[in-house]
Structure prediction request, 347 residues.
Amino acid sequence: MIDTQDPQVVIRRLAIVGSGLAGLTAARKLVAAGVEVTLFEKSRGPGGRMASKRLSEPADGSADIGAQYFTVRNPAFREFLTEHASTECWGLWDGRFRYQGADNGWQKMRPAERYVGIPRMSAITRSLSEGLDVRAGVRIASLGRRDDKTWCLTDTDGQVHESFDAVLLTPPPAQTVDLLKDSGLAVLADDFNIEISRMQACWTVMVHFPEGAGVDFEALMPNSRLLNWAANNSSKPGREDQGEWWVLHGDPDWSDANTEEDPDQVAEQLLNEFLQYGEVRANPGTVKVHRWLYARPKARTGPGHLWFPEERIAIAGDWLDGGRVEGAFNSADGLVSRLACLGVLPG
Ligand SMILES: Cc1cc2nc3c(=O)[nH]c(=O)nc-3n(C[C@H](O)[C@H](O)[C@H](O)COP(=O)(O)OP(=O)(O)OC[C@H]3O[C@@H](n4cnc5c(N)ncnc54)[C@H](O)[C@@H]3O)c2cc1C
Prediction:
């Protein structure tokens, strides 16, 4: 039986690297279990790949450049969002979604409950981060272990953050492997098989149609070698754009093969594909481009999460649980349940 009073066993202070949905889910659940949690986030704010980009031209607005929508199939995910995120910041996105079948004919996408953040995707992670100790703009470079077995984290400015009983890593696999290697913990990365570690890139284009695109669908997935997805971001609930902002996502294999391509060229190619497949006659205005080097995992299965009891290092994230927003939640939720079962949480 584990002695939960033993300071060597119970996790009282824990550091989380990354404040995407996996990091924030774990943080809220661990805080509820009595753990003192600090999150370190390299970007300016929380959210990770549930990202929205502010667009000031031609009018103030934003577009979701990462996750487009998410499913809530696991009742525990719904419970979590209901309890921890404000009810105004997420809701259903209803629309006419179509894809091109094998015969190139257009089909309606299967009816499904598709959820989005309101008024932007990042509103959910903003809401989840409220009240948590999130150190934004801090990129962790390495982890070090003291003689008393606590962990310290060194950031890229050389600042050292002490002293944690355990560490949870939530960055995408390549960044997690780099962190482990730079911390003399490369052996832990042996537990990732190549399949689950393989993330694909995604070129993302945001394009504004001042008069609207003039089409009769909100999202489409064409049989294009270049373009994987196009969606009218302005059709999501709570957006008050002038005109329409559309988000185009490049095909994962094509994006992978063209990561070093000139962004203007990428924008032109993806936009042309959209105009052609969507039969868009309206004139586009402002165009912006974003490159995701690590967008989605190629594999759809994984171990859920990883926990190394000797080192007291945990790893969670969408890529360990089939990808997607709900996978990120499931991964972190599974990890916290496991730690609770092991009796290493104070509560
Ligand atoms: C283009 C695109 C389209 C997508 N479409 C969908 C979709 O339609 N539906 C869906 O369900 N999912 C979609 N996804 C996937 C979804 O966004 C992810 O599954 C989910 O957001 C992952 O959450 P996470 O917490 O596991 O990882 P992340 O959100 O990546 O969080 C990891 C965090 O770690 C931070 N970080 C990394 N390294 C360090 C470091 N050294 N120090 C400090 N911080 C660090 C990062 O900045 C990031 O904030 C899409 C993703 C992309 C990119």
Remarks:
- The helical segments are 21-32, 75-84, 122-129, 173-182, 194-197, 252-257, 263-277, 324-342.
- The longest strand covers residues 199-209.
